[in-house]
Hints:
The protein has 321 residues and is of the alpha/beta class.
Amino acid sequence: MSPLALTMGDPAGIGGEIALAAWRQGGLPPFFLIDDADRIKAIAGAVPVRRIADPGETGTDALCVLHRPLVRPAVPGKPDSANAGAVIASIETAVRLTEQGRAAAVVTNPIHKESLYQAGFKFPGHTEYLAHLAGVERVVMLLASPELKVVPVTIHQSLRDAIASLTPELIIETARLVDAGLKRDFGTSSPRLALAGVNPHAGEGGALGREDLDIVAPAVAALQREGIDARGPLPGDTLFHAEARATYDVALGMYHDQVLIPIKTLDFHGGVNVTLGLPFIRTSPDHGTAFGLAGTGRARPDSLIAALKLAAFMAERRAHV
């Protein structure tokens, strides 16, 4: 299998540090970092770093870095829009190499969207930009840990806007991608999808709002007619205890915090962000740039390690499907 391509993320954040820490722990699939090699060498400490010109040079004797120079030196905790071009180039390079088969998957370190916006970046975030590069319109964000997999049907919107944008069609499209993604990339032959209701107690038969009757229930019925194992709307307050989690493979929430709070409570350091619906594999640590930790040596690599391992597992799955 080709090595994994790891992007730099925001150079003022913890991406370089956790890449070094992950390599130091060992036991990982082969990967290379797309970053400023001189910057990584400067913060590497005892970790050996080797500058490479091609992914084929990736080895296990050092953290291999495909060099993409920064415009200005990175200062930990202080993002600089002057380096936005290098951040974007790192993402584009990872995607291009993966599409060419020279990398097995894209693993992205966290970016700082405001810095990119200041440099003219036109996309809401990583996921939307990756969809643009891949030429696809609809992708799904799945958060995965050993204890739980979740998908928010609506993502970065206010609660008011999320409910206003929720439709049976949106739920159905999301569930289809989730069903296909679990089959293809996770080896789940018959995925069980649990769909949370919008309102407390899934609306109490309409007494607490009609969204569950008028939006979620019709979507579930349509999915069942397609042969997808979907259940709901289910009360969100009883969906995430251990006994309930044993009855499904993934929980779909109707808004962001409905499902991200449970998974981050269960496994804050080990969660992985997976983008379903792309023609290539993309995983990411389930955390941000952590500017407050940058340069302190206290950033934990757990989520990046999980993201690298999951990307390799998914790549192996696709290679044999």
